[in-house]
Structures are given as structure tokens and as C-alpha cells.
Please model this.
Amino acid sequence: MKFDVAVLASEPLPVVVRQVQLAERLGYDTVWITDTHLVCRELWVTLAACAAATSRIRLGPGVTVPHSRHVSVTASAIASLHELAPGRVVIGVGTGGSSAQTMGLRLEQVGRVATLEAMATSLRRLLAGERVRFDTGIEGRLAWLTAPPSIPLYLAGSGPRMLQAAGRLGDGVIVYATVRPEVLAPALDCVAVGAKSAGRTLADLDVALWAPMSIGRDRALARDHARGRVASACRHPLPVRLTEEDEAAIRRVREGYDAYQHARAASEHRALVPDRLVDLMALAGTPEDVREQVRQLHAVPGLSRVIIFPQAPEAGFIARETILTMFAEHVMAAVA
Model:
């Protein structure tokens, strides 16, 4: 199993670059930069700065979305990044959450399977040097592209239909469906159904789990640090029905969620997240707690990587550098 890091670039860009350099030194495989343009620094500027400052670690958006960037802009950006860091670039694509809400869109408006399918198909064709028909009715291509770059495409999903589409169209899949093996199993079944429809199997895909994560010596603080990130996870559908108590708690979180406090440690909506949802959605607690949680994930068939997503830190909470170091030293090393 490989371990990646997702970074919400809400801190100054030089700080984010240093954190990515730290992740490279600690042995993480990939850094995924989130694309929430009104809440954090600009995605492609951040990725370019990180690519220039590193030499081994893979880099890419996790995830970029269609409603804030035209697909032709995304294709040109990722192909340009590939020139800066050949062989180290990946691209994660989803339908979006916080970036939609800060623009006044509802998740139901953007979270459509057809949207994910269209973006994935158009990206592949543009990066292959082919023409694509745009919404304007005209066709376009990347005229400057001299040769198709090899850039793995990861599609993100949480609900059954989105996971099936990801399994059908992606080189990899980013699963956002709790950290509990009993929920992940049916999620991966959905991915497998999609893969089968394309003449593939689950083993042909690089399947990643998107996992809110917080680790610290103080169990209560570490769990509280994760609550804002858990609140964000609660906005997305799941492949299974939960208990009525859990479903009711998730509804309360969704109703009280403030997208401008997206994934902040001290977000007000974190108070709506009960301990049960922290257990369900996050890898959180002491090094011993998190190590045991990861060992359970290691036993899930078909899961090949875990993308840990530390909370955006704030005063009184845990610094991202501390979390990355502690996870690498006390979890990654032990599981490996």
C-alpha cells in the first residue's frame, strides 16, 4: 500500500512548498493539491511551485472540477506541468464540493455522472492531441502539444453511480466513502462493476482512499482537529445507507456547513460532528489508534493507496508538518 498526502493550500504558498518538500523527504508517494479557488491558493501556480522545488514525489490536482475551469484550460495546464516534471504528474478529477458552494451552486447541480464522464473523455482526447467539440459548438485542440504526455487520470466518487463511472473511465479511482472497511467493500464493488463494463478488473486500477487524518499524542485534540474535515466528508453521498442516527447527524452537518470555512480546524460547523462520525470518516487519534485503523485498511482487497488529508491548521491545533512527520514515522514505517 502506498501513502499520499492531500493539501488544502490555505497557508502561504512558500509554506505549502516546504510542506511538499517535507512529504517528499518522508517518503510519501504523491501530493494532491485541492482546487478550491476562493478558499485557498491557486491550484496551478501552487503545483508549478511544488514541482520546481521537488525531484521525486508525484504531484497533481486532487481534485480539479469542471464548473470553475474549462476543460481546455485544465488540459493545457496539466500538460504544461508535465513539461516541468515529466513522469511525476497525475490528475484527479471530480464534480466538486466546496468550490461549487462558494460560487452559489448546490452539490446536486454539479454532482452529476454525465459531468464527470464528459470531462474525463474530453481530457483524454485533448491530451492525446485530438479535437474536442466544446459547448460553443466549435472544435478545439491543444495546438502547441507536440506529443501526448503520459498522465494517469484518477476519477473521484463516493456514491454508487459515480464510483461505477470512475471504474469505467479512470486509470485510477479516488474513493471518498468513509474509512470503515464494511463501507469500503461495497464502494469497491461499485468500482469493480464499472471496470468490468470496460473490459477490466479492479486489479487493473490504482484505487485510492481519500481519508481525513489527524494524529497526535493528545487523543482528544487530534480527534477534534479532524472534525472540520469530517464535516466536509459528510456532504457527499455514500454507497450504503447508514443507521438512522448517523444519517440524521449527517443531515445536520450538511445544513450547517459553511464552505468558506472548508476543512478549517477551528470551523464552527465542526461542533456539529459527533464522535461517531469521526470514527466513521477519519483516521484520527494517537499513533497507536491511527496505526490500527490503517492496518484494517491494509486488509481491504483492491485498495492500493491511502491519501491522508490533514486538516488546515489554525492556532491551538496541530501543525501540518507535525502530522505528516508523525504519520510517516509511527504509521507508514510500521505498516510497511
